[in-house]
Write a structure and sequence with these properties.
The longest helix is centred in the middle third of the chain and has 11 residues. The protein has 237 residues and is an alpha/beta fold. Strand 11 and strand 12 form a beta hairpin. It has one domain: CNF1/YfiH-like putative cysteine hydrolases. It has 6 helices and 14 strands. It is globular, with a radius of gyration of 17 Å.
């Protein structure tokens, strides 16, 4: 996350398998893995806000009163309060971090294929605009996720993306392994359409399926090895 790494006003990061499973149903429940990871970032669980993540496009503005909670039926969060941390958990879906360096607004999005079809990226930018952000001042970082190299889909799903977004270059690739879908392509298109500058989007390809020794993968792990990683962003106090 080159652009985000240069911003001294924020703390951000993505966990790996070495920290363990980050899934939580209630923020107050004991999760030593979560505590260990947040300690590395010098963040407190009591200030972390998570989402239920239902593969929708709902984005909610949160603040101090939501600290330490899991927000129901939500796939995006925005905040302006220093000290608050926003979290997104994934295991192949796209964890997306947002930061408006002018208005000091942070955001997170859980972007699975359903959320991307529902244009959750545009929903996030709209929500940030509603609290004063201008899209050209927003940096976006897309964290570890399953890449087009490994994400094979059925023809019906590929056709839904083509119908929604058109024949975008490199979105759909067919080879002897099947039909590959690169979810970053339509996500970037909708972010740029919403006003985000292309050069302000960081999306290094860190494929959770290829690098399953480092990251959890819904498609590659089994019931015994499955877990989720956490992407987090916070405005420093």
């Amino acid at each position: 996350m080159e652009k985000l790494a240069l911003q001294k006003e924020i703390i951000h990061g993505f966990s790996t398998k070495k920290f363990g499973d980050m899934r939580v149903k209630k923020m107050l429940e004991e999760n030593n893995n979560l505590d260990k990871f947040l300690k590395v970032l010098n963040l407190k669980k009591s200030n972390l806000i998570m989402m239920e993540q239902v593969h929708g496009r709902k984005v909610k503005k949160v603040g101090k009163k939501e600290a330490g909670k899991v927000i129901k039926k939500t796939d995006g969060l925005v905040a302006k309060k220093p000290g608050i941390a926003l979290g997104v958990k994934v295991a192949d879906c796209l964890p997306v971090l947002f930061y408006d360096y002018q208005k000091k607004v942070i955001g997170v999005v859980h972007a699975g294929w359903k959320g991307i079809l529902a244009e959750i990226g545009q929903a996030m930018v709209k929500k940030m605009r509603s609290i004063g952000s201008q899209p050209e001042n927003i940096f976006v970082g897309i964290g570890p996720h399953i890449g087009g190299c490994c994400y094979t889909v059925e023809d019906e799903r590929a056709k839904r993306f083509v119908k929604k977004f058109g024949n975008l270059p490199k979105m759909i690739i067919k080879d002897n392994q099947g039909i590959h879908l690169d979810l970053t392509v339509p996500l970037k298109v909708q972010l740029i359409k919403a006003g985000i500058l292309k050069q302000n989007i960081d999306s290094p390809l860190i494929c959770t399926f290829c690098k399953n020794d480092e990251f959890y993968s819904y498609r590659k792990d089994n019931n015994k090895t499955y877990g989720e990683i956490l992407g987090v962003i916070s405005l420093a106090n």
